[in-house]
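Pipeline run #58 for the internal structure catalog. This entry was flagged by the ingest filter as a single-chain record with no existing model, so it goes straight to prediction. Upstream metadata was stripped on purpose; only the residue string is passed forward. Reviewer on rotation: M.T. Logging verbosity set to normal.
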Amino acid sequence: MKILKEVLSDSTLSTVQKYIHDNMGSFKWSSSEIQWNPGLRIGVVGSCLIQETTQELRDLIIPEIKPLVPECNDIAINYHLWQRGSGISGHTDKDYEWGATLYLNEEWHYNYGGLFCWQPKDEETMRAITPLRNTLVLNDDQEVHFVTTISPECPQYRVTLQIWGKK
């Protein structure tokens, strides 16, 4: 797992955050209940809202992340709004060349839940990080990872871009 900070330029990050703010109440969202394999929802009671990014946003994001990620045939990018009670069970992103999460919240406290946890290859212990704005977590080694459940008392969505390099 690689952790990269200050990934997007201020201009691109602002555009990405403005889009999410402007479109949060639209009817364009799907749900992890519909989209995800049931194995990804083990022990998770809430749902994550999902929306593909526009081509305009892809055209801004991809050139900035491409030098940081392994080569692939195509890149998929979705917004995820992690609601109270949402999370994701342990998995490896095995259907992709690599997977990545870019955190968009201005601030996040670990008491809200939503910690990104992973198990480095050949280690028995787990590691975790608290989401930090404009930080990219890159899984380019098929490591098991998951997101802890968002607290029912969390005052905000956990907002991320989920990015996958397609084979």
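catalog note: The longest helix spans residues 10-23.
catalog note: Helices lie at 10-23, 32-35, 55-65.
status: ready for reviewer M.T.
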